[in-house]
Amino acid sequence: MPAFDGNLALKRIVKSTSRPATRPAWETETIKTRRIPVSATPDADQILKQRTLAVRRALSRRRLRLLATMVFLVLFTAGTFGVMVYRQAKILERNFAVVAMELEIQKNQKESGQIREALAQQTNLDEIRKQAIARLGLQDPARSQQVAVNVPDTDRIVFVRDGSGASDDAYLNGVFASIEQYFKTISIGVQGD
């Protein structure tokens, strides 16, 4: 037998030993014929009707599957948007609750401030002084223990100017001089004299 052309890996090796030729199984079997009467075969119109019915059934199944898929997609999309809207509604509801609580806190703080002011206005300092003398044994301070402090009726606001600081320096020098004079007048008493 001649060698096959092509790749060596695909080269067929033919054995030189000879065997008796065996026939395949399909050649040895005998084919039995069966005769079918003409009346048993379906009519061409019936075959055409069956095929059209099968095609219609297949198309109706395909349409039903497509319709079910579309309904599922619409419901899935609607459900997704519904969940998003529900979450936003919950967030908005909680936001309103927080704003209501903040307003209530502000109202309570105003009421608390008004109550403190009313309490401070109703406080009688003379009555407190009398009770402190009577119950706690408070004594009036001696003349040397009293310190006079002048408190202005209005607040003083100092603004910083970006221009020259000559007037500010003059003011600060005057304040420094008055503080220095105050400390020079203070006499430090030595104990034990």
Brief characterization of the structure:
This protein is mostly helical and 193 residues long. The protein is built from 4 helices and no strands. It starts with 24 loop residues before the first helix and ends in an 8-residue tail after the last helix.
Explain the overall architecture.
- By secondary structure, this protein is an all-alpha fold.
- The protein has four helices and no strands.
- 0% of the residues are buried.
- The model has no long low-confidence stretch (mean pLDDT 81).
Oligomer: single chain
Average pLDDT rating: 81
As residue ranges, the low-confidence spans are none
**Distance, first to last CA:** 147 Å
* H/E element sequence: HHHH
Q: Compute the CA-based radius of gyration.
A: 57 Å
Shape summary = rod-shaped
Show the helix and strand layout.
Layout: H1 25-28, H2 44-122, H3 125-136, H4 166-185
Defining key terms:
193 residues, rod-shaped, mainly alpha, 4 helices
